[in-house]
Amino acid sequence: MYRKLTFFSRFVPDILAGRKTITLRDEAESWPRIGETLDVHTFEDDRWFCRICVEDVHPIELAALDDTHARQENMTLAELKDVLAGIYPGRDAFWLIRFKLCSGDDSQP
Ligand SMILES: CC(=O)Nc1ccn([C@@H]2O[C@H](CO)[C@@H](O)[C@H]2O)c(=O)n1
Known about the structure:
By secondary structure, this protein is of the alpha+beta class. The chain has 3 helices and 5 strands.
């Protein structure tokens, strides 16, 4: 059994295309561990849509977010900050989870 992470369904196409390779979460969702495989579901209807392998997890402040992070979200920095303000109003400290799509077969690199 893999642990489960959810994403808003509007991000599904970007995740499946490999255009979105990070997510920024609060402490409640800082639990993924590097090397861990996760089952990924939509937040709205709990639909499974892929597995991801966690490549990095680290804390990051809002002020430290730059264009590289925005690119990894397939957004501009302004769009990313808007999205964060919408999901996490007033928060300025996050956890960055970087991931790649994976099969869930642990024997694969
Ligand atoms: C319940 C809950 O909080 N779910 C979340 C939280 C965040 N995100 C995405 O991560 C990035 C930065 O936050 C943006 O692309 C967000 O849309 C998400 O898809 N689903």
